[in-house]
Amino acid sequence: MLEARELTVRFGGLTAVDAVSATLEVGELVGIIGPNGAGKTTFFNAVSGVLAPTSGRLLLEGEDLTGQGPHRFAQHGLARTFQTPRVFADMTVASNVNFGLQFAGRRHRAQDVPWALRDVASILGVIGLQKQAAMPASAITPSQQRLLEIGMALATRPRLLLLDEVAAGLTEGEIEAMASLIRRLRDELGLTVVWIEHAVRTLLRHVERVLVLHQGRKIADGLPSEVVRNAEVIEAYLGDEMAEAGG
Ligand SMILES: Nc1ncnc2c1ncn2[C@@H]1O[C@H](COP(=O)(O)OP(=O)(O)OP(=O)(O)O)[C@@H](O)[C@H]1O
C-alpha cells in the first residue's frame, strides 16, 4: 500500500524524521508510538503529502509520489485525521460528512464503493452519529467531533486511513469504543489503517504491528509482544509510560 524509503524531514537544524523506512501492506492495522516530539505527526504529514520530505522517497500503491501535494495522495485513496479535529463547526454533522463525499464521487464506480460508505446515512451509522445528524458540529461533544472527523475521512472512500491521536482526551470507555471502531474499519471495510496514539496499552492490544519513533528515528518495528520487550523502546518510552501507570 505504502512504502517510505529513508524518509527525512528537517526543519532548519532539527531533523524531525530521520531516514525512516517503512512498508505498509494492504489491509494491515499498524500503530505508531513514541514520546512527545518523536516525529510521529511529521511522519504522517510527509506520507500524506502535507509536507515535502527533505530527502527519501514515498511510494503509494507502487507509484512514486515524492514531492506531490496532498490531492495526489488522496487520489490514491489516502485519507487522514488531524491531532486537533478539523470539522466545520457551523455546518450540521450530516453536512460535514456530505462535504467529504463531494471529494469521493468521481473516483469510484458505484460497484466499487463499500456498502457501508455508500451515503451520508450509512457513514453516520458506521461512526455512530445518526442521532446527531441534524446538529451543528459545534454542538456535539469533543469525542463525537473526533468520530465526525473520521466520518469525513471515510466519506472520501479511502483505502488507506491515517489516524492521528483520535483517542486523545477521551475517557477509558470512549478509548475502547474508538479502538473497536478502528478494528471494524479494517476488518469490515478492508481499509489499511495507521494509528498514532499515546494510549499505548490500548493501542498495543488492537494493532498487529507497531512502529516506534524516537528523536525522528525508527527504533523498532514489529509485533506488539516483541516491541514491549525491546530494551531500547523501554528505555526511550515505555519505561516512563509504565511508571506513570504504576508499573
Ligand atoms: N512546522 C514545524 N516547524 C518546526 N519544527 C517543527 C514543525 N513541526 C514539528 N516540528 C518539530 O519536529 C519535532 C517532531 O514533532 P512532531 O509533532 O512530529 O512529534 P510527535 O511525535 O507527533 O509529537 P507529539 O506526540 O507531541 O504529537 C518536534 O521537535 C517539533 O517541535
What does this structure look like?
By secondary structure, the chain is an alpha/beta fold. It has two domains: 1-77 and 160-233, 3-Layer(aba) Sandwich (Rossmann fold), CATH 3.40.50.300; 86-158, no CATH class. 36% of the residues lie in helices and 24% in strands. It is built from nine helices and ten strands. The chain has helices spanning 40-47, 70-75, 93-104, 120-127, 142-155, 172-187, 200-206, 224-227, 231-244, and strands at 2-11, 14-24, 29-33, 55-60, 63-64, 78-80, 160-164, 192-196, 209-214, 217-222. The strands form two sheets. Strands 6-7-8-3-9-10 form a six-stranded mixed beta sheet, with helices on both faces. A four-stranded antiparallel beta sheet has the order 2-1-4-5, with helices on one face. Helix 6 (172-187) links the parallel strand 7 and strand 8. The structure holds adenosine-5'-triphosphate. Adenosine-5'-triphosphate is lined by residues 11, 14, 16, 34, 36-42.
